[in-house]
Amino acid sequence: MKTLTTTDALHAFCKEAANHPYVTVDTEFLRERTYYSKLCLIQLAFSGDGESDAVLVDPLAEGLSLAPLYDLFRDETVVKVFHAARQDLEIFWVDAAVFPKPLFDTQVAAMVCGFGDQVGYETLVRKIVKEGIDKSSRFTDWSRRPLSDAQKTYALADVTHLRQVYEFLAADLERSGRSHWVSEELQVLTDPATYEIQPQEAWRRVKTRTSSGKFMAVVRELAAFREDYAQTNNVPRNRVFKDDALVELASTKPRTTADLGGSRLLLREARKGAIAEGILQAVAKGIDCPPEQHPKVDRSREKMQVNPALADLLRVLLKAKTESAGVAAKLIAPSADLDAIASGQRDVAALTGWRKEVFGEDALRLCNGEIALSAKGQSVKVVAL
User: Fold this and answer.
1) In this predicted model, what pLDDT tens digit does every residue of 130-183 receive, in sequence order?
2) In 10 A of CB 212, how many CB atoms?
3) Is residue 303 assigned to a domain?
4) Dist. CA 278–CA 286, nearest whole Å
5) Do both 281 and 312 map to the same domain?
6) pLDDT, tens digit, 9 for 90 and up, residues 101-112
7) Which of 171, 194, 217 is the last residue of a domain?
8) Distance separating alpha carbons of residues 338 and 333, to the nearest angstrom
9) What is the largest CA-CA distance in the chain?
């Protein structure tokens, strides 16, 4: 198992990989104690059938630059293959503002090919490659050096088996004419907005029971301070203070450090120093916010007048359509989207793109009373009216 620890060695491998139609990629990282993922290992393999075509790259090695890898990512003649790519792509975007193009995600492709919802890598390897994977090193500390042989073997398997998985799924998509379905799904993964969290928008992630304007103004300022502090100091946002503490602070609206001492949920470290000061400033800013600048909570879905019978019929239709097409149901429409359609909303993903081909067109026809559903044995059929 070759481990690359110099920029020259990485450049040589990437130069050779550029002569192949695709390269498989995976990473190992830590995020428990940081806001941004700490990249600890990169696994690469190009088309072939052995470990000689695969390497481990040690990004922690002194002096090693990932520039050759990023050049390969920009080479659009080579497909970059990942499994469940989102977290990997976030690492590369944060580090170098680069996305691998063209991109292929075997988890997304497997959902389109009928392997179920968010199918795991081990499952695909077992079903397609007919091999098992030793999981014993999955939760080890990838930042410690030297890496054990078991860690290296585990890590390398993430890209060597991925080659066969990719080739199988790519061929399946080509036969079925569904390659463009996967391309549509991957657009969100290569959109910078997917990974950029603006502090002033962080409040939208906080669940509250009230939507009072002044209360939500304080929530917004507290969430913005927490996000900015976490990003600047590279610590998890929950290490600053958790959501339940944030909501408590928005309710009690502390004005002094002494007031913070009365909080039941605030971490001890947050009751002094820069965090305490930031909390008090955020609360004061939220209180002083004029009513016309209060954040507006989107409660439209809560006010939907859902036709429950129609929603049930849409669920039956979705099940029938996805079983017929061999596509994971959740990839087309989560339950909330079905309720939205049943309430009359039409700006949902299930009614656009390839989803409209599979499900959306008949969903609209069902809503308009143009078709009915007929059950016979174990199958459900669409009947024109």
Assistant:
1) 999 887 788 899 999 999 999 999 999 999 999 999 999 999 999 999 999 999
2) 13
3) no
4) 12
5) no
6) 999 999 999 999
7) 194
8) 7
9) 71
